[in-house]
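Structure ticket #2291
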Amino acid sequence: MKKQLLVVFGILFVFGIKAQQDPILMEIDGKPVTKSEFLQIYLKNNPTPKYDKAALDEYMELFKKFKLKVAEAEALKYDTIPKLKKELEGYQKQLALPYLVDAAKNEALVKEAYDRTKSEVRASHILVRLEQNATPADTLAAYNRIMGLKKRVENGESFASVAKSKNGSDDPSAINNGGDLGYFNAFQMVYPFEDKAYTTAIGEVSEPFKTRFGYHIVKVTDKRPARGTIKVAHIMVAVPKSGTEEDAKNAEKKINEIYAKLQAGEKFENLAKDFSDDPSSNQKAGELPMFGTGTTTRMVPAFEDAAFGLKTNGEYSTPVKTDYGYHIIKRLEWKDVKPFEELKKELQGKVNKDERSKKTQDSFVQKVKNNYHYKNTADKGLVWFEQNLDTTYFEGKWKAESLKSNKTLFVLDGKNFGQKEFAVYLEKNFRAARKDKTQQVVRSQYANWEKEAILAYEETKLASKYPEFKALTTEYHDGILLYEIMTDKVWNKAMKDTVGLKNYFEQNRAKYVWGKRADALVYECTTQKIADQVAKMILVDTINSKHVLDVINKDSELNLRVRTNKFDIEQTAFLKDQKITKGVNKSYEFEGKFIVLKVNEIIEPTTKVFTEAKGAVTSDYQNYLEMVWLQELNKKHTVKIYESVLYAIGQ
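Resolution: structure written out below.
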């Protein structure tokens, strides 16, 4: 039954349904909320949904609170706040992109992207920078310069030496890498660059081509099958960029000691936790995000090569040097490039956000013109702009105030698009105009405006044409309003209301209590022998922890680690269930380490002062404010739930 239900609603969202097929589930102040809207959010937040009365009631309570907050935000006109309006419009434009392209051409681009995902290109480039709105003269100068650099390569100079030379590549990294970008595949470069790299033969130098950065030439040095994606863990011993030669030697010594422990049988996970300098991974057994083909995560080449050189899960490398220090890398998981059908949806999303999607917009606009009986009447209407646009335009000072007429420039779907709309566009988009003869500037800007206006008009139709688009825009609308009103009414209010916060603390002091604590120095030793030596040393009051570290770690940085704090005994794993007394305690083993405690004081349970409890108090006070606010909203807004519709969902 559940599977059938999901299929039904999949059809609902793709093809649309009549009103009677999507009954009203609830009303807030008379505004209807349909069954499909509730179900969409319910399924999104419940991967394994249940449809019994208890489950539906529980989620409906959450949904009601959510909708009450949104209703209050709308009542307070949050959706008219300029900042939020702009944010909502931005989201809507992003969501609209997949609907404003030629579907057939778009699918071809998705297939092309997949084919490129299956291989990797290594290429070098030389860049001559050029502003996007450069003058024709600057554009010609940049083109001539890139042609001159290409000629030098053709005459026998190495590509790298030309890239590095004075007045060579404008890419600042070229001085170090000679223009070599390493291996990459689909979506890791801007599309025109990617396209040229994939369509240029190995060993060949491309003709000059343009991206938003300027003119490039590319030399392809290798192509290989994609290596797939890999998940690894690592242990890192960092070498600071400003580190000395001695720092580097100490790091190398430490990584070799760790490697020796690995070979002796110690667990990689424990060594990563105890000794790795990478704070983002050392508490996760050294685990890093998946990287490789098609991912946005990239590693430095030395690290990647060592990782992909590991052939089996669980295998680990010898120490590897990178610009960040030394690493031992352990392979956890490797995946080949997925089949097209599995990657299609992900690639579609990337294509829709990528430059390549613009390739399909022109043909889409032409289809819209045909469907909506487009008629161009621009020739006479543009004459005024050609006569009245002057040099002040490129400085952003030109105004169309003297424009009195509003002649129609084109007609679409019976709607006239006139001079005044185009004039507003011109004023706002002067930076995008390339300095040229007035007639060329006007015609170029008009072409841009016409395309933008047609796409914007079609965007207004999307909600009525595509229920899934309407559902997504509603979700974003509600989410943005919810965040903003919660910030104002709950989160920031709790932070700013210092009097209320302290009063809440005073009324609930009994909730905020320290457990029994040990004010202690913790010596974590690798062997029992070292623990015995440490215990003997710290019996002498004049010996401090720094002295102990210097002595014990003289031969190895791994022998001893020291921590000091007021530890909650019941909440600290290595202290819980231990018989702890003041002074130097007898050593004991915990998770392969030998612990020596020097306890300065045993602190009995006490009530926390406000500063100690502030984080927890703030969180609790926010919950309290939200509860009170929701009680007010329930009184202010009328909510009606149609239980017969709700309970029919699972039938």
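Closing remark: The chain has five domains: 1-80+469-508+626-651, 119-225, 230-335, 372-462, 513-607.
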